[in-house]
Amino acid sequence: RVGAGGKGGNNGKGSRRAVVVSSPELAKECFTENDVVFANRPLFPSQRILSFDGASLSMASYGSYWRNLRRVAAVQVLSAHRVACMSPVISGEVRAMVRRMNRAAAAADGGAARVQMKRRLFELSLSVLMETIARTKTSRTEANADSDMSPEAHEFKQIVDDVVPHLGTANLWDYLPVLRWFDVFGVMKKLVNAVNRREVFLRRLIDAERLRENGGGNDGEKKSVIAVLLSLQKMKNLFGAGTETTSTTTEWAMALLLNHPEALKKAQAEIDTAVGTSRCIINETLRLYPAAPLLLPHESSADCKVGGYDVPRGTMLLVNVYAIHRDPAVWEDPGEFRPERFEDGKAEGRLLMPFGMGRRKCPGETLALRTIGLVLGTLIQCFDWDRVDGVEVDMTEGGGLTIPMTVPLEAMCRPRAALHGVLQEL
Ligand code: HEM
């Protein structure tokens, strides 16, 4: 369960020393006794360009600088209290999406609309982040009928689309200097261009927030993230980490439910009586499709041992969460979608780590689970769902930093008769 590859600690010759861990015991060993040693991140050339030379929270090496940023993120921006304050914003965005779907269904033949779930969920996730980070709602109009995004979110999506294809641990450009010297594939040009656009964009959001602040427009608890950070003077970028992961997980959850109508019916019935029971479905989705299947890469800052093997300083650590979550020694029929595994604490003691473990664990977990829960709960409660033309959803997985669905999810949605009045009033 420990794999090794590459020689030499850095990527100067197109290779890099790496250790791949794919069992629950070894993952625990890496993030308990070796947690401090593995708390660094390898900095690939593409990441160096994108992360202000390693200055972003997710890419910074372990030390006082990272600790400081992490404290700001965990305490000021993503704490349970902050997330509770953000909930009305999230619900507002979800309601806006439901309103649009309801309108589309009313206008469609037979009262059911064909919905591009992937696009909708990504847009929603980005809008939630835009709204909590910069409060851009004012610049959006309902007349923009078929999109769930503000113009700012649109602009940011274009920047993300330019960057995402060049992320990931198997990017040749990062390993082979010759490709970089001649900027083969024009990667450098594209990344620098995207970073420059991102700078201009963020600067604009910050200036707008400053103007609002000067005008006395900020009200305590409902402050945007930028306002919070401005008051601490530590503006850092959290958009990248939170968008794709959240929307992809919701998309997989909907796909699983469409292929398991009995689970969908059960969830609908339960939500009608007690909101919040979609948690087992979310856990099971994150078990089968962890949005970061290899976590983010870690790097050792000193020699250590993993599973009895010597691991030298400067080795990249990849933790295969995808394999750990499907370990047949731990999970019965690991490939099957069975949310009941998580009922009544039945899965307690089994390692589920879609957000990682140890000190570099995802600080956005509370926000992500709240957002996914609200979105999924609302979609299941408000609509009856069907597969397009009754055809089984294609569950083929794509590659990259996250696990995208190869065929973007589409589904038929029909407003539930019992909720007609409620939907009209949204
Ligand atoms: C389903 C949603 C999400 C999943 C599955 C997820 C998963 C992860 C994972 C696996 C890591 C790396 C842990 C490691 O290195 O061992 C991570 C890091 C991180 N995540 Fe998330 N994440 C999600 C949503 C979010 C959200 C909503 C935010 C914030 C808005 C966020 C912010 C971050 C940051 C800043 C880091 C870097 C932390 C550090 O290096 O110290 N994530 N996430």
UniProtKB/TrEMBL annotation:
Gene3D superfamilies from the UniProt entry: Cytochrome P450
Statement: the UniProt record of this protein carries the keyword Metal-binding: yes
Binding site for heme: 362
Keyword Protein biosynthesis: no
Pfam families noted in UniProt: p450
Keywords of this entry: Heme, Iron, Metal-binding, Monooxygenase, Oxidoreductase, Signal
GO molecular function, one term: monooxygenase activity
Domain of life: Eukaryota
InterPro entries in alphabetical order: Cyt_P450, Cyt_P450_CS, Cyt_P450_E_grp-I, Cyt_P450_sf, Plant_Cytochrome_P450_Monoox
Cofactors (names): heme
Family, per entry: Belongs to the cytochrome P450 family.
Protein name: Cytochrome P450
Originating organism: Digitaria exilis
Organism ancestry: Eukaryota, Viridiplantae, Streptophyta, Embryophyta, Tracheophyta
